[in-house]
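Feature request, filed as a ticket because there's no other form

It would be nice if the structure record came with a short human-readable summary line next to the tokens. Right now we just get the raw output. Example of a typical job, pasted below so the devs can see what we mean:
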Amino acid sequence: MAPASNLFRASRPAFRSQFFTSSLSRRNPASKRWQSTDGAAGTGANTGGPKAAPESWASRMWNSPIGVKTVHFWAPVMKWGLVLAGISDFARPAENLSLTQNAALTATGIIWTRWCLIIKPKNYLLAAVNFFLGLVGVIQVSRIVMYNQSQKALTAKADAEAKEVVQA
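Raw output as currently delivered:
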């Protein structure tokens, strides 16, 4: 038997220990099938009590941990301004764009897109704005790099022509 499979078989009891199962049960106790259905837990289908009315979208958004009352909502909304500014720079000539600034926006967009999917609560609105910020940055950086390469090619061609003129 391969050593790796022995390692995995030996580690199974560790992952079945009380440490892992208790942390999972504390995280989301409502998802357990064997959860009590007595009336003290609240109203619902199995309690015999009336069903609670579903919350409206506005109420859920207002009371959400990433809702309208929090920075988790307003920071991405304001960050869309950076994306719109980057999109408006598509009309500018590449020689007027800053490589360092656009590289920083690209790195910010890529890094924070990943981070938004790791943190709790997950902020998909912030992840979306950072993804588009990184995308706009990649486009701008590629425009700048292509412009710089074309300028180098033009100067190399001009140098070659000048050498031919001097030799003739």
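Something like this underneath would help us a lot:
The helical segments are 3-15, 18-27, 57-63, 71-88, 99-118, 124-167.
The two ends are 78 Å apart (CA to CA).
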